[in-house]
Amino acid sequence: NAGVMQNPRHLVRRRGQEARLRCSPMKGHSHVYWYRQLPEEGLKFMVYLQKENIIDESGMPKERFSAEFPKEGPSILRIQQVVRGDSAAYFCASSPSEGQNNEQFFGPGTRLTVL
Amino acid sequence: QKEVEQNSGPLSVPEGAIASLNCTYSDRVSQSFFWYRQYSGKSPELIMSIYSNGDKEDGRFTAQLNKASQYVSLLIRDSQPSDSATYLCAKDSSYKLIFGSGTRLLVRP
Fold it and tell me: Taking CB atoms and an 8 Å limit, are B97 and A48 in contact across chains?
C-alpha cells in the first residue's frame, strides 16, 4: 500500500492522558501536514513539517500540542493532557517536494475520543 | 468573511443529472485550488486540482476557475448515487490548504 498511513485509526483517552498519533507519508513524499476536523465542522490546518523541520505551526494550539517528523520514522502529533474538546478526527496529508502544485493526499485519519 | 465559502447544501439532484458545486474565495493571491470528496466517516479524497483560469476536465468531472471573480466550481456529469458525499473546496495558502465547510451532495436514484 503506497498511500498515506495513519495509526491508530481509533484512539480513546481519558481526560488528562496523552495521545500520540502517527503518520507515514506516501512513498517519495517529503512534506507532511496535519489537519483536524471537529464534529460537523470543516478541516482546519494545524501544522506543516518536512524532515526534522517544522515549517508552519500556525494552526496548532500553543499549549499541549506538539508535532515532529524525525529523520527516521513517522511523523508524530502529540497531545498532552487531553480534554474533551480535543475529540475530533485528525488527518495527515502528504505531498511531493516543492514545485508539484501542492496536491496533498490524505491518510485514513485517527479518530480521537476523550472520555 | 470566510477565506473559502461554500453553500452547505444539501444539493439534491436526480441520477443522471449534472451536479454543480460552487465555491468562492477571498483573496487574489492563491494560485492553486482543489476539490476533495469526503464520504461520511472517511478521509478526503482528491478529485481535481486547477491552477489556471478556464476549465479542466477529468472523466465526469469538470473544474472551472475564474480568478477575476474569485470563483471555482465543480461540475459532475451523469451523477450517480455513489457520488453522494460532501465536496470540499480548498485553496493553497503558503502550502497549507484552507478548506471550505463543504457542500453535501445527494444524488437520488
Answer: no
Query: Maximum CA pair distance of chain A?
Result: 43
Q: What is the pLDDT of residues B36-89, one digit of tens each?
A: 999 999 999 999 999 989 999 999 999 999 998 999 999 999 999 999 999 999
Considering only alpha carbons, which residue of chain B is nearest residue A97? B95
Neighbours of A94 (CB within 10 A): 24
Chain A positions in Cβ-Cβ contact with residue B95 (cut-off 8 Å): 31, 33, 48, 55-56, 102
Q: How far is CA B24 from CA A12, B30, B37, B65, in A?
A: 37, 12, 17, 10
Taking an 8 Å Cβ-Cβ cutoff, which residues of chain A contact chain B? 31, 33, 35, 41-45, 48, 55-56, 58-59, 91, 93, 101-109
Among A31, A101, A102, A113, pick the best mutation site for testing chain B contact (most B Cβ within 10 A).
A102
For residue A104, what pLDDT is reported?
Answer: 94
Least confident window among A104-113, B26-35, B62-71: B26-35
Residues of chain A in contact with residue B43, where contact means CB-CB under 8 angstroms, are 91, 106-109
* Cis before A8 (ω within 30): yes
Reported confidence tier of residue A100, pLDDT bands at 50, 70, 90: low
Task: Give me the amino acid identity at B28.
Answer: R
User: Shortest CA distance to A101 belongs to which of B69, B49, B74, B6?
Assistant: B49
